[in-house]
Design goal:
Number of strands of chain B: 0
Oligomer: heterodimer
Strand content of chain B: under 5%
Largest interface: A-B, 57 and 65 residues
Distance between the termini of chain B: 79 Å
Helix content of chain B: over 70%
Order of helices and strands of chain A: HHH
Radius of gyration of chain A: 35 Å
Number of domains of chain A: 1
Number of domains of chain B: 1
Strand content of chain A: under 5%
Structural class of chain B: mainly alpha
Number of helices of chain A: 3
Helix content of chain A: over 70%
Shape of chain A: rod-shaped
Number of helices of chain B: 8
Chain lengths: 130, 285
């Protein structure tokens, strides 16, 4: 048997809601005219139909998963590719900064200045971590 | 003669590279930034399938005069929430990526650190004149930014086209779950409380004053439910605008230099911004 789609279940839920609305309206207009037994019967009927409507709206929301599975996967792939392109473009600035730090380190080594070497290593490490 | 020819060729080459990468992605960025902000209002809705279920259980406990709350089974509603959240997350993730990638600051590279390091350096191996370093640096900067922008533009075109169909589906179903299923559950709640209050006002043991209070309480609760529905409807309008804007973007992604297309994207961003303002104006409970 073919399974119902989320939209079909939502339509069904709306039919149940409309039925409950009709019974509810009838009870509001005729509450005093109904016998105790009629009152109880229509109330039970109203409660059951309303519960079906409520449960069907939740079911429709769950069935949405069947409709979006492929789209979720496609957009997930594209988002990952975007992140990767973004990272590539960000890395270009990182490479420029690393090159600058390497030049400073090279100069410090040539000057044989221990403090400058330590500072330059610290600077390079910071750039690499960034 | 050969030198002059070489100079002219090089100039033409640079000009072509720079001009071909000059497409400003500002309009794409404006649209995606507004859309992202608008879609993120999901987090401000402050209502869910599970909350609706908990409200129902509380109503039933009050109706039955149960002081100690009984167990409330909201498993199905939790599942509905997690699916809705999953769709929201995917839409937000995509718009976040598009906003980051279309940001013009991303490819505005700063050569200053390297220029400074080279001009200050007196290493024998790389002894270069300051003016020379700056000149090379400026050319590299222009070319690097030009190539990076071209790459960015190419990637954005590719992603927007590929993403449009799944994006439309996801927006449609996110909207469906919120403005149809969840808002309809609020209609169920409206009918349920009307029935409860009907019985109270028909109760002959209550005084007229108590009945008046009961009706007052009923109207107050009705207002609260309708405010939630208004929030969902406003969010729905914003989602529809976002979907329409993305469709325009995908349809015209190859013509981003045309004035009318830029105008359209600006209009879409502005419409979405209006929706954000409308959403923020709704009084929060």
């Amino acid at each position: 048997m073919a399974q119902l789609t989320s939209q079909q279940v939502n339509e069904l839920a709306n039919y149940f809601l409309a039925m409950a609305q009709a019974i509810g309206d009838y009870r509001v207009k005729n509450f005093d005219a109904l016998s105790k037994e009629e009152n109880q019967k229509t109330e039970e009927l109203f409660d059951s139909i309303l519960k079906y409507a409520d449960d069907l709206f939740t079911l429709s929301a769950i069935l949405v998963m069947d409709d979006v599975q492929t789209s979720l996967s496609s957009i997930g792939d594209i988002t990952n590719k975007m992140k990767s392109a973004f990272k590539t473009l960000q890395d270009i600035q990182k490479v420029i900064n690393i090159a600058a730090s390497v030049v400073i380190l090279g100069e410090s080594i040539m000057k044989k200045n221990p403090q400058a070497i330590a500072d330059a290593i610290g600077g390079l490490a910071g750039t690499l971590k960034a | 003669m050969t030198k002059l020819y070489l100079k002219i060729s090089l100039s033409i080459f640079f000009l072509t590279v720079v001009l071909s990468s000059c497409v400003n992605l500002k309009h794409v960025n404006d649209f995606s930034t507004s859309s992202l902000k608008s879609v993120k209002n999901f987090e401000a809705i402050d209502y869910s399938f599970k909350q609706n279920c908990l409200d129902k259980c509380q109503d039933q406990n009050i109706k039955k005069l149960v002081l100690i709350p009984q167990e409330c089974n909201c498993e199905a509603d939790e599942k509905a929430d997690s699916i809705t959240f999953l769709i929201y997350n995917a839409v937000r993730g995509y718009l976040d990526g598009l906003t980051n990638l279309s940001n013009n600051n991303l490819t505005t590279y700063k050569m200053d650190p390297l220029t400074k390091a080279l001009t200050k350096s007196d290493l024998a191996a790389i002894k270069v004149e300051k003016a020379q370093v700056e000149a090379y640096s400026n050319i590299s900067n222009v070319l690097l930014n030009a190539f990076a922008n071209k790459y960015r533009k190419h990637k954005i075109k590719e992603y927007v086209k590929a993403a449009n169909e799944p994006f439309q589906v996801l927006i449609r179903f996110l909207d469906f779950n919120l403005s149809s299923n969840l808002a309809d559950k609020l209609n169920v709640q409206k009918l349920r409380i009307r029935e409860d209050y009907l019985k109270l006002i028909k109760d002959s043991t209550l005084s007229s004053l108590e009945k008046r209070k009961t009706i007052e309480e009923y109207y107050h609760r009705l207002d609260l439910i309708e405010a939630k529905q208004q929030t969902l409807n406003t969010y729905s309008k914003a989602l529809k605008k976002t979907a329409g804007g993305h469709q325009n973007l995908a349809d015209n992604i190859d013509k981003l230099n045309i004035y009318e297309i830029k105008e359209q994207l600006t209009q879409d961003a502005s419409d979405i911004q209006d929706m954000i303002s409308e959403f923020n104006k709704i009084p929060k409970q």
